[in-house]
Each structure stands twice: as structure tokens, then as C-alpha cells.
Amino acid sequence: MTDHAVPAQSPFNPDKHRVERVLCFAAHPDDIDFGAAGTIAAWTAAGVQVTYCIMTDGDAGGFDPAHRAEIIALRAAEQERAAGLVGVTDIRYLNERDGFLEPNHQVMFGVVKLVREIRPDVVVAMHPERNWGRIQKSHPDHLAVGEAVTRAVYPAVENPFAYPELAESGLAAYKLPWLWLYAGPDERENHFVDVTDHVEQKLQAIHVHVSQHPDAAAMEAEVRKGMSANAKRAGMADGRSAEAFHVVTVNGPGTIAGF
Q1: What are phi and psi of 222, to 5 degrees?
Q2: Are 194 and 231 in contact (CB under 8 A)?
Q3: What are phi and psi of 71, to 5 degrees?
């Protein structure tokens, strides 16, 4: 995996900043595969420990009325298989209702609890800002993930007096270094990861979610096109593929603490 930082914009330097543990948040089963599965495959191949947290059950997804009674179990099984294809076996769920996710304290509590438990170097989450160029990226649940996670990582994760019952149970406050946001507006993206060597893994993972793809061929073509466009924006050579992120420093050398 080669990370390409846009000069003077991305604060993350892959040659300088070590990543050993990553926690990824998504609204629905399949979101993380579309947004970051190539990067995740590269991380796991390098020995990075990656955990997924899917916030909703995905119960409003799919297209076949015959699947209604089994859609939650079906989508969870799809996510488990897709995760395995990119080297992830640890999947957590917040079990919120699909289409009803809100950045409230119940959800934030779940985020803080998990971040303090995993203590990752990087939290990956959906972007809290709407993408007007492709509004399908900005399902209300996607935006809610971004807002809930962003609110949680600062200040609650690192504030020992936020949700004190967590500290009392042994989950001490933790200063998260990095927040990587995906599926946001193009103009916010400041970091590109060359995932050319993991494109097929990413696509295989996406194809597992058969309940969600009425036109799998068109979906694959669009994903390939998007990764190629990302690589061109990053200044990579022709034929390369990339995933794009908005990388935010939460706690770095110049961070001044304060709640």
C-alpha cells in the first residue's frame, strides 16, 4: 500500500506515523466495503488489527420483498463474509434501526465505549458533511455516523469525566491520534491511498452484498471508475486506483488539550 498525501494538506505521513490498530465505523453492512475496503485489505496484509463497528442492522436495505423477514441476519452474514475477504474478523454492532440513526448520547456512548476498549491509532468513519455532487453517498444514517463519531472522539473519548460509568468499569480516557473520514465531499479529501494491489479484494467484498445490488455490473463499473478518478486527483500514474479520505489530526505533537 502506498499512501499519497496531497502536499500541505494531509497531516498523515505513512512513512512517519505508525498504524497498528484501526477501528472502522459504518452505518450499514456494505458501507465500509465501498468506502475503504482496499485500504483495510492493505492494512491487514501489513499486520494491522482492524475492527468494524456497524451501527445499524441494515433492516431497511435490499430490494426483494421476500427477504424482509430475514434481512437483518442476511446482511450480517454478508458483512461477515465480506470482512473476511479483506482480513477482518472482529465485527461489532450497535443494533440501531436502519434509517433512524441519530448522533445522540446513546450512540455516542457506544462509540466512546468501543474506542476506549480498542484504543486504535486510527478511527475510520463516514463523513458528517453532505456530498452534493453524489447525494447517494450522504444517506442520513451516513451523516449521523460521521457526526456521532466526530462528537465522540472529541472530547468524550479523552475526557475522563464524560460518561463516568465507563471509567468506573475500567475503560479509561484515551487520546485518539487520527480520524479518517470517507464518503464525504471531494473538496474535503486530503489523503489518497493507492489500493491498486487490492482492487479485486475490494470488489469481491462488495459483491458479497448481493442483497443490495440490483445491477452488480453497473455497480462494479462505477466503483472502478471512482477509484481511477481518485488516483488521478492524487497525481498517481495512469492505471492506478485509490481510495480517498479526509484525514483529521485529533491529537498530535502540536495539540493543546482542553475540554
Answers
A1: -70, -40
A2: yes
A3: -65, -35
Tens digit of pLDDT at every position of the chain (259 positions): 677 765 447 898 887 888 999 999 999 999 999 999 999 999 999 999 999 999 999 887 766 676 667 889 999 999 999 999 999 999 999 999 999 999 999 999 999 999 999 999 999 999 999 999 888 889 999 999 999 999 999 999 999 999 999 999 999 999 999 999 999 999 999 999 999 999 999 999 999 998 887 889 999 999 999 999 999 999 999 999 999 999 999 998 888 876 6
Q: Measured between alpha carbons, how far is 135 from 192 in angstroms, rounded to an integer? A: 21
> Backbone phi, then psi, for 193, in 5-degree steps?
-110, 125
* Radius of gyration from C-alpha coordinates of the chain: 18
> Whole-structure pTM over 0.85, yes or no?
yes
Question: 173: exposed, middle or buried (C-beta count within 10 Å: 0-12, 13-18, 19+)?
Answer: middle
Q: Which domains, ranges and CATH numbers included, belong to the chain?
A: 2-7+19-249 (3.40.50.10320)
Residue 247: strand pairing partners: 180
Rounded distance between C-alpha atoms, residue 122 and residue 177, angstroms: 7
Note if the bond before 120 is cis, omega within 30 degrees. no
Q: CA distances (Å), 183 to each of 78, 134, 200, in order?
A: 21, 10, 20
Q: Under 8 Å CB-to-CB from 227, ≥6 apart: which residues? A: 38, 195, 199, 241, 242, 243
